[in-house]
Amino acid sequence: MPSSRRAFLGAAGALLLTGCSSDVLGLRRAVRVAVSWSGQELRAFHKVLDGLGTLEYPVEVVPLGDDISTAFGARSTRRPDIVMLPQPGLVPRHLDDLEPMPDDLAPLGRARLWDELLTHNGTTYGVPFKTAHKSAVWYRPSVFEQAGVQPPRLWSEWLTVNRTLTQAGITPLSLAAGDGWVLTDFLENVLLGIAPSVYVGLAAATDPRPSRQPQFGAALRLLGTMWSAPGALAGGVKESLVQQFPDALIEVFGHRRAAMVLASDFAEPVVRSFAADPDDIGLFTFPPMSPGAAAPVVVGGDVMVLPKPTRDDARDLVRRLSAPAAADPWIKEGGFLVDGRVSGYTPELTRLAMQLTKPGEQLQFDLSDQLGRLGDINGLWRVLTDFLVQVGGRGAAVVPGAVDDAINELRTVEES
Amino acid sequence: MGLQTNGLSLEIVGREISGRPVPGKPRRPAGPYLLGLPALVLSCLLLVPIGVTVVAAFRTPAGFGFGNFAVMTDPGALRAVGNSLLWVLVAFGIVVIGFFLALLSYRLPAVTTFLQPALVIPFAVSVLVSGATFRLLFDPTPERGTVTAVWTWLFGTSPVWLGPGLFWLVLVSAFGWTWLGYVVSLFRAGLDAIPDDVTRTLTAEGVRGWRRLRALEIPLLRPITGVVTLTVVIAAVRVFDLILIVVPGSMQRSADVLGLNWWRATTSGDDPGRTAALGVVLFAIVAAVGLIGVRGLRRRRWAMPVTVVRPDPSLGRPKPRRSVRRFGWLVGLAVALVWIFPAVVLVITALHSPAEAGVRGWWSASGLGFSSFAAAANVGLFRALLSTLIIASAATAVLLVIAVPTAYLVAWGGLPMRVGRTVMAVFVVLAVTPVQMYAAPLRDAIDAAGLAGSRIALALVHAAAGLPFAVLLLRSAFASAPPALVSEALQGPVRQSAVLATVQRTYRPALIAVAVLEFALVWNDFIVGFLISGPGTTPLSLVLWGEARQFSASSGPVAAAAVVASIVPVVLMLSFWRTVVRGLTTGSRP
């Protein structure tokens, strides 16, 4: 049937031609936005983009997951125009790769706390898009009531709560050890709680050597005490190791096999969408390590940076995204904090937002981001994973040995 | 003149000799060489970057030498080499298992009725999709993971399947699920082509069991074994995205393979000389395996005589008894059901809402609907699908246009013996070259040319990468029916239907096989697109980077995206599978 074949080919050709708009062929330059978000967060970001209205340029979102730092590697392909950097601590290390922010946006990067990382010699290199409160513990109030315990107000109380829960047959903790940053967040909270000056010193050092700080070992020991308690971790170490961040939340709120989980504010949409009982959701912030000390608050966030060389379209998109109302669609989805804003959230997130803006709190940026290679997947992530494997559920007796091993491993990474 | 008897048709074509015989060598016209020119230009897309990589690997600040290969003493790189070699072993294991399964299906008639499509589907989907499917199956919670649930139900407790050490089981299952169908199909085609009289003679002589295997099947299937081993081993050494999607982040360094190690080294800004050295080591392993595989092919001529006349059905294998047929039918059905099961799990998971799929397994009856598809569509899946369609079509078209004349030149262009052999050797080496050997220089060149992100550039790279295999395949098909014979048949005084039938039976399947395989390969590609034009362009990379960070919480959208991305290659493969198998085996029939 030559005629029908010809018709088919013609139709296919026409279809291809219409499909080959310069946009799809990759000839028209889209503004490429590299993000680390996935799943619900990624969808929420797409909603934010949709909410910006019609733009004069196509926008392409490139999800890079945990490999986001490759976005401005020296040999990166198709360098993105905007990077939503989830580790603001990386900004000072990449100043040469970054374009300064336009003058009208620069003040946004000089907000409290952010200016240390985003501003250098009076030039602003990034503006915050999303703030993360990394010292939040989500829990189920029903099991706390069942065991007769209250959210802890001190680290020592937390250990007692865990013990009481275990005795009542309830697994206290769920831990997402499959994601290394969950482990480093835990350690950072403890370290910031016991030795803020050491924390700040390590964050500022050009060649940080945490293995030489006795306080670092002390923080590991405290952490080991909690992790090593028999029956403390849901599913034991093996299952913790394969759990990603949302899995640990589902373990607590979906399958109800554990009582609480250290997670950030951005855990909220996962908690709410998977909770078996939507009313059984509680939140407390990381308690102070000792009476009289300030509670540690580890802050993270995603900052918008412009890799060199940039274009007007990219600057325009940053401007639109940093408008106060831009993030509203995401705030509606939950799990989004805007720097300096304390209203419009759910009650839980409002509490976290208040703590972030309250003067006198022990606020510090995520340490592992500022340690360079030492803080990433081959450094602290690996050390803490091995540490967890050594201590998890094995009792306090193994902790000192495991701490020594971890410090030695860290030293090897430092020296390499 | 023609002669026909007993279903055998003989045709003799003669022509008068004109002019007198002249001494000396025949003149070789230069014209046909032009046929190879496009292929040469296209191959330079690979050859030049490969040269650059090799030079970079041996260039050290102190001059040329092996200094960069010190990278191999790094424990991480050593582990990666070890794991890559382990994958080669896995590939051999799959070939052996596939051989015996094919033998079983050959001896047990009627098994293939249902088995064939069940085996083809996994081969049509990408490794990334099968990785995602098996990660769903082996999820560590009994509420979500099928295997964990069954194990817990049977024994009260279950090992953590994705945990240390055990993740290998998940990786190997996913890989085997993808490739076993291909292996079995090809072996089965080879077994079917064994002439019946040979089988009968051996049976009459009482040769059975192991002796029969060694006397009959193994030697006769050697050429096919070569093709099969080659493709599976190359796939095993190239494993990359499978590990990224299956293995949880905390264990990825113990599952590291050379390809991944190379990628991490390039992205973390390691010295380019050292990463080039890693690439060369990977290449050396693959090339060694490839050359051994091709040696197996060379034992026989590539172009095998093809049955010109359809054998008389009454002379075929005796029809087995009805009870035997029914038994084989049932076994086939059972195996097919087991084999198709992962695909069913994937589809049903995709039909659950994201919230339901994140908490409960596919067997849960609540939350059914299309909301997971909607969620997957939200992150730009269809835009990526359209772009993949364009890339795959363009690559296939370019490939066919360039590979056909080249294969003709190699088969019948009258190349001098030595040149012909060299060309074939170069094509074999190019066919097995891992993408890491040319990715870095090529992408730098594309970036420098201002073509970064251009789909056309990517399609050309795909066509160049597919060219060697296409030429090898088409050459053996063309070689089985000489062009003189074809033109005689077309223009001669008598239309020689037998010859035309030969052409139909050899050229066409080979062409279809090349087109279908290239299209599916490009459609399912992750690594070439990822390394050449960065993440975010292909649907699969969107699935991986967009969802894998929260794998089980996004089970629904992951499954939905995987299903959508698999429909086209599955339909294509199912409709053309028989032809593809024939095309793949024409040149290597016993």
UniProtKB/TrEMBL annotation, chain A:
The lineage of its organism: Bacteria, Bacillati, Actinomycetota, Actinomycetes, Propionibacteriales. It comes from the Bacteria. The keyword Transport applies. Transmembrane segments: none annotated. The keyword Acyltransferase does not apply. Belongs to the bacterial solute-binding protein 1 family. It comes from Kribbella pratensis. InterPro entries: Bact_solute-bd_prot1, SBP, TAT_signal. Pfam families: SBP_bac_1 (PF01547). Gene3D superfamilies: Periplasmic binding protein-like II. Keywords: Transport. This is Alpha-glucoside transport system substrate-binding protein.
TrEMBL record, chain B:
GO terms for biological process: transmembrane transport. It is found in: Cell membrane. The keyword Membrane applies. Keywords: Cell membrane, Membrane, Transmembrane, Transmembrane helix, Transport. CDD domains: TM_PBP2. SUPFAM superfamilies: MetI-like. Residues 80-293, 385-576 form the ABC transmembrane type-1 domain. GO terms for cellular component: plasma membrane. InterPro entries: MetI-like, MetI-like_sf, UgpAE/MalFG_permease. It comes from the Bacteria. PROSITE patterns: ABC_TM1. It is a multi-pass membrane protein. The chain crosses the membrane at residues 33-58, 85-106, 118-138, 158-180, 220-247, 276-294, 327-350, 389-411, 423-440, 452-474, 558-577. Belongs to the binding-protein-dependent transport system permease family. This is Alpha-glucoside transport system permease protein. It comes from Kribbella pratensis.
